[in-house]
Amino acid sequence: MTGTVTAILLAGARPIPDPLAQAAGVAVKPLAPVAGEPMINRPARALLEHPAIGEVIILTQRADAFAADPATAWLAAHPRVRFEKGGQGIASSLLAMMDAQALPFPLLLTTADHVLLDRAMLDQFVGEARGADIAVAMVERATLLARYPQSRRTWLKFRDGWWSGANIFWIGSDKARRLIALWQEVEQDRKKGWKVLAAFGPLALIGALLRISTLRGGMARIGRRFGLTARLVAMTSPEACIDADKAEDVTLIEAILAAR
């Protein structure tokens, strides 16, 4: 499976100023330091070092900022890395890029603040996502809290547990375009779980609220509704859902990295 997956590393800026970027005095959040270097460097290296990953596309509004920073200039010079212009939303940027060029499938998406991304996470995700039109990595609450009870996440409640996103996504074919378009509509409400669920139809929303639906079953049902194969990848690593979103996240991440 060497080099067959194109990775998209999301490194854009939100419309409102990011506290981590402001505190660090950098142009965009992915340049904010974590454990002594810009946070984007670690997930970028993890992707480039994995045998399944071929090209890495960095989606951002500020490619110039990465080229100008001595600590990230290596990305602009790397033969397997290229920068693409991002918009104000992940889904809209992805759709625009898919319309403008023939992106090779499968695609793996992750974020520049996924500082703890490593070989084991990518091994599990790529291995379980292959064959799906779309797949989403999630971590069940018990998995995270057993090791990091102090970590605070946004949870979606289902019959098979409470789940939080791990910021790793799989787009296996062009069939996923319909779901990406729907995600574009609800992107601004991604932290409001019930609005996201409602966008996938009343059965998904009611099933989650009444706990009569498992997340795995719900994803499979959503896939059937859209004529594609949708899959949950339940990550075994609790670190998979710890991203550098807040100052306390950075403190935890730095402690984890120091212990490795």
Explain what this protein looks like in three dimensions:
It comes from Sphingobium naphthae. InterPro entries: MobA-like_NTP_Trfase (IPR025877), Nucleotide-diphossugar_trans (IPR029044). There is one protein chain. This protein is of the alpha/beta class and 260 residues long. It contains 12 helices and 10 strands. Strands 1, 4, 5, 6, 7, 8, 9 and 10 form an 8-stranded mixed sheet that branches. It has a two-stranded antiparallel ribbon with strand order 2-3. Helix 5 runs antiparallel to helix 8 and helix 9 packs antiparallel against helix 10.
- Measure the end-to-end span: 28 Å
The count of strands amounts to 10
Contiguous runs where pLDDT drops below 50 for at least 5 residues = none
Largest sheet: 8 strands, mixed
The radius of gyration computed from the alpha-carbon positions, rounded to a whole number of angstroms, is 18 Å
Shape: globular
Structural class: alpha/beta
Query: Which range does the strand content fall in?
Result: 15-25%
Which whole number gives the mean pLDDT? 88
Order of helix and strand elements from N to C terminus: EHEEHEHHEHEHEHEEHHHHEH
Helical segment tally? Answer: 12
The portion of residues assigned to helices is 25-40%
Keywords: Magnesium
InterPro entries: MobA-like_NTP_Trfase (IPR025877), Nucleotide-diphossugar_trans (IPR029044)
Protein name: Nucleotidyltransferase family protein
Domain MobA-like NTP transferase: 28-141
